[in-house]
Amino acid sequence: MAIRGPLESNQGDLGSPRGPNGFAPWGPDEDQWHRKAIGHGLQAMILKLHHVAVPVSDLDSAISFYSDVLGFHRIERPDSLAGFGAWLQGYGFQIHLTEDRTFRGKKLTDNPTLPDSRHFCLFVDDIDGFREYLIRRKVTVGEIMEIAVDGHQFFVCDPAGNVIEITDIPL
């Protein structure tokens, strides 16, 4: 199914409710959506995010950032995979780092308030505390922005320049 903009009706493809802008509101009733998806012939359910693949120009510095700063731990990567890389796990999902010495990411100083179209987001329980922690770890961080009622975000970059959004908006 292709991603698209607002829908004509107030119902999504599987009958999920839509807000006035045509998109699903925050926190849809996932159990209700799953029942409707099964009724539309979906046989297998998506359970959760498994991993995010992240290109990096320096594998060692990326491993250090994701493990020492963000708290992921390294896990075994199959020998059968070609190329250089590392797998890390934590918080219920994995990050698969793939070394590409030609990769050039962003510098947060280019625009610290706007996300790159290619980014992933980490949910935290204390956005101010997490930002202060990153600053103490010498990570360049953007300013905290309010993006929804009681919702905030800021952006950081890993050593390769991959953009990471940090938010306190629950799913």
**In this structure, how is the largest beta sheet organized?**
4 strands, mixed
Overall 3D form: globular
Helix content: 10-25%
- Kindly report the spatial arrangement of strands forming the biggest sheet: 1-4-3-2
What is the distance, rounded to the nearest whole angstrom, between the alpha carbons of the first and last residues?
A: 22 Å
Highest CATH level, the class of the domain at 108-167: Alpha Beta
CATH fold descriptor of the domain at 108-167: 2,3-Dihydroxybiphenyl 1,2-Dioxygenase, domain 1
Q: What's the CATH architecture of the domain at 108-167?
A: Roll
Care to count the β-strands? 8
In the predicted model, the low-confidence regions spanning at least 5 consecutive residues are 1-16
Rg for CA atoms: 19 Å
Q: Which class best fits the helix and strand makeup?
A: alpha/beta
Work out the helix count: 3
Query: What is the averaged pLDDT score?
Result: 80
**Fourth-tier CATH superfamily name of the domain at 108-167:** 2,3-Dihydroxybiphenyl 1,2-Dioxygenase, domain 1
Pfam family, one: Glyoxalase
GO molecular function: dioxygenase activity; lactoylglutathione lyase activity; metal ion binding
Keywords: Dioxygenase, Metal-binding, Oxidoreductase
Domain VOC: 48-169
